[in-house]
Specification:
The protein contains 16 helices and 22 strands. The chain is α+β, with helices and mostly antiparallel strands. A hairpin with a 2-residue loop joins strand 14 and strand 15 (about 340). The structure holds pyridoxal-5'-phosphate.
């Protein structure tokens, strides 16, 4: 197939050049109705491209023309049986993977490191979760991947489950052995669904990890927007015909869950991002890996800083491949800020406020910088200078203390399925000691990495309560609750 082409984008340009007089959606009518406040900044072209399903430009939910060609090229590049563009991120993709494979009251086996969008999938489908605990890397204090032994044990005890859902890589580039997970799931006749949101670039350079698509997974979701040059909200889903997935149901799920008015600017950005990867992937990732390797090496020379690298493939049994484009800056030893301990969360704020640098995320121990198709050596130098300066100001010398905080609490007791809890009668109560013992009616996840600490239908016990309180005090961001500050929490009546 001719990967140099971007058939969808090219087709839209052809249509635009016809200059038709329009009497249809969107209301801005090819930009003519847009206020100058926005148009002066964005320019005209973005509105010309913001079309609807007019003649010849194809339709996301019934792709037969230029959009089908674009999706076929995507499938060809990643080696799937079929691939589909998504306009509601990997959130929508995760919903579709679960909704199309596991029905109401049926079991799904999933890693506890699943992003909260997987919980959304459970609510939509009514599936009953059976969780596998996630392993941790205690050197840098983050959750990693599933222990294949524990996964198999859980499957053996639940052979009636309809699918296995795993998340790998984690945010930090630590990638599990997908081939092994797929073999285990298939041995028990279950499809393997992979949330590869952070691995859209996988397989696009010989020194990057291989994608789950080529390792036996049945469905794989990737957030193109996270690491590639497509626009926010864009993702794609890959389907492999290993005899486990009902493709018609997957297509129906995508129709149910996604807008009937997909944004053509977003879809075009996916088409062009695929073409860019296919034609320039090797050159781009030569540069990206150079930048990442320079950063890792230089940051590792700064007192008090450790940046994990490829060696983790040897030291951590649950990291089979490491993605070098993730720069996890660990603050080791004694770091002090305002006479208190400088958590990763505080380091992120310092980078923001003192150095004008915005990173992807922070946790108690680390700050994470993404190096993507859009990064160059001068970006790296800005970060190195800032961390050098921070080390001079805030690093107070070695200390034997390793990672001494709680990385993740245990999995709480599941009392109701997420869907049952979603529809149950509930009330808002103060988030204090009195919630201990109550069944939660909403998801509470702490960002990063967005893994649910307690999900709808799970009992809030003391450890869970104290963990959430402790993280909030350290500076973690809570996501999910109706009350964004979590002064109140929604519990079952
Ligand atoms: C592992 C994982 N899965 C899914 C998602 C949701 O992806 P999106 O933002 O593309 O909807 C995220 C978002 O951060 C994520 O980290």
């Amino acid at each position: 197939m001719d990967q140099r082409r971007a058939p969808y984008f090219e087709g839209l340009l052809k249509y635009i050049n016809q200059g038709r007089t329009a009497f249809h959606m969107p209301g801005h009518n090819r930009g003519k109705g847009v206020h100058p406040l926005l148009k002066d900044f964005l320019g005209e072209n973005v509105f010309l491209l913001d079309l609807t399903e007019v003649e010849g430009v194809d339709y996301l939910h019934k792709a037969t023309g230029i959009l089908k060609e674009a999706q076929d090229l995507l499938s060809d590049l990643y080696g799937s049986t079929e691939s589909f563009f998504l306009i509601n991120g990997s959130t929508g993709g995760n919903h579709a993977m679960i909704f199309s494979t596991v029905g109401d009251g049926e079991k799904i086996i999933l890693g506890r490191n699943s992003h909260r969008s997987a919980l959304g999938g459970l609510i939509v489908s009514g599936a009953v979760p059976v969780y596998v605990p996630v392993e941790v890397n205690s050197r840098i204090g983050v959750t990693t991947n599933l222990d294949p032994g524990k996964l198999e044990e859980t499957i053996k005890n639940n052979t009636d489950a309809k699918a296995v859902f795993i998340t790998t890589p984690n945010y930090y580039g630590m990638t599990g052995n997908v081939k092994l997970y797929a073999d285990i799931a298939h041995k028990y006749n279950m499809p393997l669904l992979v949330d590869e949101a952070h691995g859209a670039h996988y397989g696009m350079h010989p020194e990057l990890p291989e994608t789950a698509v080529r390792q036996g997974a049945d469905l794989v979701v990737q957030s193109a927007h996270k690491t590639l040059a497509s626009m926010t909200q864009t993702s794609w889903i890959h389907y492999n015909d290993n005899g486990f997935i009902d493709l018609a149901r997957l297509k129906m799920a995508l129709q149910v869950l996604q807008s009937t008015s997909p944004n053509y600017v977003l879809l075009s950005s996916l088409d062009v991002a695929r073409m860019q990867l296919a034609t320039e992937g090797k050159i781009i990732y030569d540069r990206v890996l150079d930048v990442a390797r320079y950063l890792r090496k230089t940051l590792n020379e700064i007192p008090g800083i450790f940046v994990i690298g490829k060696e983790v493939e040897e030291t951590d049994p649950f990291v089979s491949v490491y993605d070098e484009t993730k720069i996890v800056i660990s603050f080791e030893g004694k770091w002090e800020y305002n006479k208190g301990r400088m958590y990763g969360y505080i380091a992120e704020k310092i980078l923001n406020h003192e150095y004008n640098i915005e990173v992807e995320l922070s946790d108690p121990h680390n700050v994470l910088a993404f190096i993507t198709v859009g990064h160059y050596m001068d970006d790296a130098k800005v970060l190195v200078d800032a961390i050098k300066d921070m080390s001079k100001k805030y690093y107070k010398g070695e200390e034997t203390r390793g990672v001494d905080y709680h990385i993740l609490p245990h999995i709480p007791e599941v009392v109701l399925t997420p869907r049952e809890a979603f529809f149950a009668k509930s009330e808002m109560v103060a988030f204090d000691e009195n919630v201990i013992g109550r069944v939660c009616a909403e998801v509470v996840s702490l960002y990063p990495p967005g893994i649910p600490i307690v999900a709808p239908g799970e009992r809030i016990d003391r450890e869970i309560y104290e963990f959430i309180k402790e993280r909030i005090t350290q500076g973690a961001e809570v996501q999910g609750p109706i009350d964004p500050e979590l002064n109140y929490i929604k519990v079952i009546k």
